[in-house]
Every structure is written in C-alpha cells, then in structure tokens.
From TrEMBL:
This is Iron ABC transporter permease. The keyword Transport applies. It is a multi-pass membrane protein. The chain crosses the membrane at residues 26-52, 86-107, 116-138, 144-167, 179-200, 270-297, 309-329, 336-357. Belongs to the binding-protein-dependent transport system permease family. FecCD subfamily. It comes from the Bacteria. Its main location: membrane. It is found in: Cell membrane. Keywords: Cell membrane, Membrane, Transmembrane, Transmembrane helix, Transport. The keyword Transport applies.
Length: 361
C-alpha cells in the first residue's frame, strides 16, 4: 500500500464525520430495539404460550413499574425457566459476535473466528475427558461445587490458548501468522483426542458429550447466568475500547506501530479477553459455531469497516441471532429440543456462502 493510500485509509478509519456517527448511532439504537423486541417475543413462546402483553406486564410487575394480579403459572414459567434462558442467549450471542469481530480484526482474516486459536476445542476436550474418564470426583471439590465441569472446561480453554500463544513466538514476539498455524495444529490435536474419547464412550456418556459438541442453552439458570455475566463483563466492556487500535492494525503490524500502537500489547489483550469470553461461553453452553464467523461479516456489510462500530454492533447482532436460534431449537421439534449448534450451522452456512458469492462477484 503506497503512502497516499495509507493516509486515506487511516483518515477514513481513525477519524469520522458527525454524519457517520449519527448514522451508526441510529443503527446501534435500531439493533438494540430489535434485540429487546425479539427477546420479549421469544420469552413468550413455548409449550405454554404467553402473550407479548402479558410478558411485558409480568416483567413490569417484577420491576415494580406496574401493579395488579398476574397469572401465577405464567409468571413462574417466565421468570424461572424462560427469562434466564433468553438472557443467557443474549449474553453468549453478544460475546461470540464481539470476539469473532475482534479475532478477524487481529488476524486481518475474514475467515477467522474464536475457535481458530483452540479455545473451543480445548474447553470441549477437558469436558469430554471428565465425562469419559469419569473424573466426577473433581466436581465434588468444595472449591468447584456445582460448576465443576464448567470450571474445568474454562481451564482447558485457557491452557490451549496459552499453548497457541507460546508456540507462535518468534524471538520472543508472537507472530499472527504463526498463531494461525499453531491454532490449526492445536485444534487438530484436540479434535483427534476428543474423537478418541468419544469412540471409547458408552451410550450414556455420548449423550452428555453431545451437549459440548453442539451446544445448548437448556441449562441456563439465574445462578449460571450470574457466573456468565461476571465472566463476560470485562470482555464486553474492554474489547470495544480497542476498536481504534484494531483500525490501525488493519494496515499491518509494522504500520500500526508507526502509528503509535503497541502491537504486542494489543495481541495479548485480545487473546486474553477472547479466551475469557469464549471460554466461559463454552463452559456454560457448550460449543456454538458460526456465530463468531458469520455475524462480523453481516455487521460490516451494515456499518462498514470501522471497528469502533463493528464491535458493539456485532455484539447486538450476535445476541439477536442466538436468541432466535434458541427459540427455533426449543420450539421446532417440541417437546424435544434441537442442539442450538445445529440451528446456527443451518442458518449460518447459507448466509456465509451467500456472502462469499457476493464478494466474488
């Protein structure tokens, strides 16, 4: 890229006109309103239907905004079963969408997603190991409690991400290209070991393994939601603050450093924040694919390449998609339930192919 092109690119990404911010602000506001509407609508659908009006009325009563009698059965179903699940879908969808956009910005590769650096495969490997090797005594430790499996999965995500980062170092500096290759190797290794353990599993264990392989929000409770919210709070707040640095990083590591960006610190920050967010999502809900891959593409088509807008918009888009996917998963074959990973793959694959065809044209 020549000097004049670099100047124009930096001027476009690092500065914005008021009209652009107004347009993007309206887009974010619109996505927020869509998310609220979809969430309230999804909370009312299920084996026992609750009207949109009743959903709003029950929530208003719980918040102390309205008074009056409500249907006790509908209130219990909404607040105990469906609301935690819908909120978990919003949280996990937001973190997957945002981390997907950040990883694509870090690798400067639109085909990258958080699973590329081994986070999802490492978490699944540790979970499957606990199931097949029957290491249930780990969950009985007082320090782990009811979240033993989730904590061990998170540890697996952290260890694999750390291994990928160490393997990518050249003369003490982590190379993005080497990180990509190391991630592919670690993913292949974790997948092979997981496949071997799956082969050794019995029928009961295979059903448990299915959760980690395809994902589900069925285990969402207020307790697990609190754990997820605490763990995902830092990535959701900190990653958007790195949007300006990612804009400069799009020029390449060398050019970003000339612009005053500490490339090494940026890579470490993004890897740590992505590992924290995605590791917790896999630990609580299993592996949910395609959200971190497809959502950033759709978002950039809507708002452009500026990561300061792409990151929060990807979070909102991811939350909307996962909420709708979970709604389909729990209603389309009711009273049974589809793994949510199947739904996101069915929706995500055609969307991704359509994007590829459009870009090729």
């Amino acid at each position: 890229m020549n000097n004049s092109a670099e100047v124009r690119f930096v001027d476009t990404l690092l500065t914005s006109k008021t009209s652009s911010f107004t347009k993007n602000g309206l887009i974010l506001l619109g996505l927020t309103l869509v998310l609220i509407t979809v969430s309230l609508w999804a909370a009312g659908l299920g084996a026992v239907a609750i009207s949109f009006r009743d959903v709003c009325y029950i929530l208003g009563q719980k918040l102390g905004l309205v008074s009056g009698a409500v249907d006790d059965q509908a209130s219990v179903i909404l607040t105990v079963i469906r609301l935690p699940r819908v909120l978990m879908g919003i949280l996990i969808g937001a973190i997957l969408g945002m981390t997907g956009a950040s990883i694509q910005g870090l690798f400067r590769n639109p085909l990258a997603d958080p699973g590329l650096i081994g986070i999802s495969s490492g978490a699944s490997l540790f979970a499957v190991s606990m199931i097949v090797l029957e290491l249930h005594w780990l969950s009985e430790w007082q320090m782990l409690g009811l979240f033993g499996m989730s904590i061990m999965s998170f540890i697996g995500a952290c260890l694999t991400a750390f291994g990928v980062y160490q393997l990518s170092k050249v003369e003490g500096k982590a190379s993005v290209s080497n990180m990509l290759l190391a991630g592919i190797a670690i993913n292949a290794l974790c997948g092979a070991i997981t496949g071997l353990l799956t082969y050794l599993a019995n029928d009961a264990q295979l059903r448990s393994i299915q959760f980690w392989g395809l994902g589900s929000l069925g285990g969402a409770t207020w307790e697990t939601l609190q754990v997820g919210a605490i763990g995902c709070f830092l990535p959701l707040v900190a990653i958007p603050r790195l949007g300006k640095s990612l804009n400069a990083f799009a020029l390449g590591e060398g050019q970003a450093q000339h612009l005053g960006i500490n490339a090494k610190r940026l890579k470490i920050q993004l890897i740590l924040l992505t590992t924290l967010g995605v590791g917790i999502s896999v630990a609580l809900c299993g592996t949910i694919g395609f959200v971190g891959l497809v959502i950033p593409h759709i978002t950039r088509m809507l708002v452009g390449p500026d990561h300061r807008i792409v990151l929060p918009a990807s979070a909102l888009m991811g939350a909307i998609l996962l909420t709708l996917a979970d709604l389909i998963a729990r209603t389309i074959v009711a009273p049974a339930e589809l793994p949510i990973g199947i739904v996101t793959a069915i929706v995500g694959t055609p969307s991704f192919i359509a994007i590829l065809i459009k870009n090729r044209r």
